[in-house]
């Protein structure tokens, strides 16, 4: 499949998944228009239709991770105006731009007011391009009482596909009418049926959430094929974020880019012996170089995203120094964003990514290792069981006197175990794997916070030496605030460390041990 065709497929898959999770009041009916409802029989209720508006070109806006769509709201921009179809059935409009942007930067008006609950750190972005017209339907009884209202949007997607979006607005006391209308719409093809066809021409390039490509794995499929398929799937999952990073639309693009690259690097680290030593070393170096370019910007993004948390850690009297510190962080962040954007659009970067794509698309060019032909299931059991046993050994040796390096090692091994279970999940009972991953979450969150404190302490300790200040007084003010933050972070790190033994004990229950043994421990002679 052509590279951009793969991107297109990945791009709208998350929107499809999200649409399918919305409450029952929103239905999508592919290949239908308002005309399909005109002659429908709704029993004792009679449909009344409003005049439909003239078709107009529109763009659907949302932000990561589709909070408007998830909540059953749709935000369109058409002819310089924002149109928000809210959950209560109201169509709210005001002046707006098709580029979207941060809610706080929108013109003052009713739409901006209705969106005030959205994250201030996320930007509205174009999701879909379409032509649409609006109308309403009401079902009334013989006395003229309204039992349900339905807001209807007729959509013609780029490429010519038609569809009808219906918002069901039940009236209190007439719940049966909603069930009747929903049943009728499902008969017309609404719901999840045909949803992919309905949305396939919809996507303009919204990559948020494309983090877990679906990868089919056979029980006896060679480990070499599994590893190569995973890397080949995650490379385009990384690349769909490039435009968002270059245009600096939202920090989530870089975050998703890094996650996809991290998954590829974890394959090279965890799938021992699948590739030759030389091949593994070469790929590790190349993907490590790609990741290294992104580290500074992501670190600064995380600080700025958690800005309020830092202010909350210290007394009001020390906030002045923190403000100065974050002003410097923001300056560094903007410089790093420009530097990374230049890197991503460079000929050297584009050539390297194309070369890697071509290589993964031609597995015969990759050098195999001694474990390349092992069956996927047995290989998965071998890797997961070994990693699980290593975690148990490290965790049981940790006490109040253990070095911080031991806690960090436990965190790394837990992350590797989770990656292995996620990679090979299709080979094992879904509920069991999901339960094991969930049982690790509290421990991983604990270890993650411990690590965050370590990184923040190190960064803040180096901050004073790596920055120049406007004056000696400013330097002293910042130093005082940074010192207070470091002291509190040390305290928080100690608290998190104290919870490690407790959280591991909770994870290491008899039920969890038994599930690991049942799923992953191979019989003697099979290992």
* Secondary structure: number of strands: 10
Inertia-based shape = globular
The helix-strand sequence is: HEHEEHEEEEHEEEHHHHHHHHHHHHHHH
Helix amount, in percent?
Answer: 55-70%
Which band does the percent of strand residues land in?
Answer: 5-15%
From the N-terminal CA to the C-terminal CA, the straight-line distance is: 38 Å
Q: Main beta sheet: strand number and arrangement? A: 10 strands, antiparallel
Low-confidence parts, pLDDT < 50 over ≥5 residues?
Answer: 1-23, 192-211
- Mean pLDDT over all positions: 85
Structural class per helix/strand content? Answer: alpha+beta
Gyration radius, to the nearest Å? 27 Å
Question: Given the structure, what is the number of helices?
Answer: 19
């Amino acid at each position: 499949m052509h590279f951009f065709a793969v991107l297109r497929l990945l791009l709208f898959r998350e929107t499809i998944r999200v649409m399918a999770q919305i409450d029952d009041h929103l239905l999508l009916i592919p290949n239908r228009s308002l005309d399909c409802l005109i002659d429908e029989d709704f029993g004792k209720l009679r449909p009344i239709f409003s005049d439909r508006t003239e078709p107009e070109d529109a763009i659907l806006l949302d932000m990561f991770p589709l909070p408007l769509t998830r909540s059953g709201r749709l935000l369109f921009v058409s002819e310089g105006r924002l149109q928000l179809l809210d959950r209560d059935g109201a169509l709210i409009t005001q002046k707006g731009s098709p580029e979207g942007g941060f809610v706080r930067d929108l013109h003052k008006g009713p739409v901006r007011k209705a969106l005030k609950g959205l994250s201030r750190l996320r930007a509205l972005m174009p999701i879909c391009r379409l032509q649409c017209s609006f109308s309403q339907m009401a079902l009334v009884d013989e006395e003229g009482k309204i039992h349900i209202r339905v807001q209807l949007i007729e959509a013609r997607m780029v490429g010519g596909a038609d569809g009808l979006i219906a918002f069901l607005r039940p009236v209190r006391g007439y719940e049966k009418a909603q069930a009747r209308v929903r049943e009728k719409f499902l008969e017309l093809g609404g719901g999840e049926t045909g949803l992919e066809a309905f949305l396939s021409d919809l996507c303009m390039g919204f990559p948020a959430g494309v983090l877990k490509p679906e990868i089919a794995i056979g029980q006896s499929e060679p480990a070499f094929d599994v590893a190569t398929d995973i890397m080949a799937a995650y490379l385009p999952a990384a690349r769909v974020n490039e435009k968002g990073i270059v245009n600096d639309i939202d920090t989530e693009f870089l975050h998703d880019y890094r996650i996809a690259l991290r998954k590829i690097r974890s394959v090279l680290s965890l799938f021992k012996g699948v590739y030759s030593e030389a091949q593994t070393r070469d790929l590790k170096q190349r993907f490590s170089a790609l990741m290294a370019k992104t580290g500074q910007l992501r670190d600064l993004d995380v600080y700025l995203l958690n800005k309020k948390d830092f202010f909350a850690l210290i007394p009001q009297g020390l906030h002045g120094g923190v403000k100065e510190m974050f002003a410097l962080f923001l300056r560094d962040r903007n410089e790093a964003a420009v530097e990374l954007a230049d890197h991503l659009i460079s000929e050297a970067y584009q050539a390297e990514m194309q070369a890697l794509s071509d290589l993964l698309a031609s597995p015969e060019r990759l050098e195999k290792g001694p474990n390349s032909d092992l069956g996927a299931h047995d290989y998965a059991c071998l890797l997961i069981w070994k990693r699980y046993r290593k975690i148990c050994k490290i965790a049981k040796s940790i006490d109040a006197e253990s070095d911080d390096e031991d806690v960090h090692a436990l965190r790394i091994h837990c992350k590797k175990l989770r990656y292995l279970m996620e990679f090979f999940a299709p080979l094992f009972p879904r509920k069991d794997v999901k339960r094991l991953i969930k049982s690790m979450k509290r421990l991983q969150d604990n270890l993650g916070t411990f690590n965050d404190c370590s990184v923040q302490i190190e960064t803040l300790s180096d901050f004073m030496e790596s920055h120049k200040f406007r004056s000696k007084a400013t330097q002293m003010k910042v130093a005082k605030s940074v010192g207070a933050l470091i002291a509190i972070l040390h305290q928080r790190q100690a608290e998190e460390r104290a919870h490690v033994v407790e959280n591991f004990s909770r994870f290491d229950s008899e039920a969890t041990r038994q599930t690991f043994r049942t799923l992953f421990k191979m019989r003697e002679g099979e290992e």
